[in-house]
Design goal:
Layout: E1 10-15, H1 17-30, E2 36-37, H2 38-42, H3 44-52, H4 60-80, E3 86-92, E4 95-102, E5 106-112, H5 121-124, H6 126-139, E6 143-150, E7 162-168, H7 172-192, H8 226-229, E8 234-236, H9 238-249, H10 259-263, H11 265-273, H12 282-289, H13 295-298, H14 300-310, E9 316-323, E10 326-333, E11 336-341, H15 354-357, H16 359-372, E12 376-382, E13 393-400, H17 403-419, H18 440-443
Parallel strand pairs: 2-4, 5-6, 11-12
Antiparallel strand pairs: 1-13, 3-4, 4-5, 6-7, 7-8, 9-10, 10-11, 12-13
Helix pairs in contact: 3-7, 6-7, 16-17
The structure holds iron/sulfur cluster (SF4) (2 copies).
Length: about 450
């Protein structure tokens, strides 16, 4: 079978000037100086130093642990819930956050290798309650759950792997007011370059990347847990725990793929068979860096990402896609699947040449359109290296012909990935990627 040429399925590309102008305008006028996350509000000092010292990054080892955590959350989430409830972005009062599972009530999933005493979550893990309390306040739910997955450790092999706590927050307004207080404290510190009023982080004594710049040795505001203190009834939810254990025990698909995997099937395959030798993929890295940093630090591109993620009410939908072993969410913005990319070119690519220059953008958008039944999608390109501010962003409306054929190709790629016993049978990535890829030796010739 010849190579699938997505360019031949693109029937029309139109630059959409009015959407571009409206976006630029809204970002210019609406841009807050800083966007604060729930995680920031649980560790104000660290949030401050993370912004003031973007040069300090967690050592690779720690980053990999964080990434491993992300993988677990996703696997666990997929086993016990469904895609449309996982990783929900929420925003209120200038604070943003990501709830692990949000169906009827917010659910936070935590993993730990230090056993937790079932009766003692408020004392032992107040930070978990703080976070949940904030999510409850943001989505206006008086109840939430914390699921703790305890990895088995040799000294205590009999620890139950799963604990579920049901927690009530009777006074959400008090939670909100404490959130606003912390948010303003952080913003004030950032503006005045003075972190001395920020409380030290709860893990004060443990190893911290910012300890060499942090003033916590000399300032004395102690960590506090006002939000955890606002929790009402807390009970261990044995029924939900049992249901979760049953769901986890049920047969899971042996492999789950995402749309990114069928755009770059060779890479996806090699990453699965040789994960330990590979650096984490760009997609995972993007997730970690994510929206949780301030807009000032990240610039216009990330503000744009945020506005596609949150949008005005009703503007953004996340549509679950489930096809064979593929499960993912497609972001639909203003009724079209929409992707935002940042080519590293220093001049704009002409419209007609886009599909040949960036076939992976069009594959991605084509798959998203075909899998959700939209004949039109939207590609936004933001050229960071283009000097003129107004010329950096382009918004294109892309119309595809024969959605069925694109869908068939998506399914074919899923099938190939499921059966693959070597990279050679899988479609190659765009050739420019190979020079940046660690899998050259395993991948073999074209
Ligand atoms: S050194 Fe301590 S207080 Fe400062 S950021 Fe790190 S953990 Fe927080
Ligand atoms: S070497 Fe090239 S084709 Fe092979 S996985 Fe890497 S980027 Fe893809």
């Amino acid at each position: 079978m010849g190579e699938f040429d997505i360019a031949s399925y693109v029937s029309r590309i139109e630059a959409n000037r009015s959407v571009k102008d409206a976006l630029m305008q809204s970002l210019r006028t609406r841009r807050p100086p800083y966007r604060v996350s729930v995680t920031d509000l649980t560790n104000l000092k660290q949030a401050y130093f993370r912004r003031k010292h973007p040069d300090i990054v967690p050592p690779l080892e720690k980053q990999q642990l964080m990434w491993a955590g992300t993988g677990f959350h996703r696997m666990f989430g997929a086993a016990v819930s469904s895609e449309e409830y996982l990783e929900q972005f929420v925003e209120a009062d200038g604070v943003v956050g990501k709830v692990d599972i949000f169906d009827e009530i917010p659910v936070e999933v935590k993993t730990t290798s230090t056993p937790v005493d079932a009766e003692d979550i408020l004392q032992r893990r107040p930070a978990y309650l703080e976070q949940l309390g904030m999510y409850c306040a943001m989505v206006d739910s008086h109840e939430g759950e914390i699921i703790i997955y305890q990895r088995q450790v040799e000294e205590s092999p009999w620890v139950s792997p799963l604990l579920v706590y049901h927690i009530a927050f009777p006074d959400l307004e008090k939670v909100r007011s404490e959130m606003r207080r912390r948010r303003d404290l952080l913003l004030q510190a950032l503006i005045s370059n003075d972190p001395s009023n920020l409380p030290a982080c709860p893990w004060f004594n443990r190893q911290c990347d910012y300890s060499r710049v942090c003033d916590c040795q000399t300032t004395s505001v102690k960590a506090s847990y006002e939000i955890a203190g606002l929790a009402g009834e807390i009970y261990v939810d044995g029924r939900t725990r049992q249901q979760l254990l049953e769901k986890m025990a049920a047969p899971q698909p042996s492999q789950v793929f995402r749309i990114n995997d069928i755009v770059f099937p060779r890479k996806a395959y090699l990453e699965r068979v040789k994960p330990q030798e590979a650096l984490p993929t760009k997609e995972v890295r993007e997730e970690q860096e994510d929206y949780l940093r301030s807009i000032d630090e990240r610039g216009f591109l990330d503000a744009l990402r945020d506005s596609l993620r949150y949008g005005a009410p009703g503007e953004v939908q996340r549509i679950p896609v489930q096809q064979a072993a593929l499960t993912d969410m497609v972001r639909v913005w203003q009724d079209r699947p929409t992707i935002l990319r940042d080519p590293k070119f220093s001049s704009l690519v002409e419209r007609e040449r886009l599909p040949r220059t960036f076939p992976h953008y069009f594959l991605r958008l084509g798959f998203e359109c075909a899998l959700t039944g939209h004949s039109r999608g939207r590609l936004m390109t933001y050229y960071v290296k283009v000097p003129k501010e107004d010329a950096k962003l382009m918004v294109y409306d892309v119309r595809f012909r024969s959605l069925d054929a694109i869908r068939v190709e998506a399914l074919r790629r899923i099938g190939l990935l499921e059966k693959a016993e070597g990279a050679g049978t899988l479609p190659r990535c765009p050739s420019w990627m190979c020079s940046y890829c660690d899998y050259g030796a395993e991948c073999g010739p074209a």
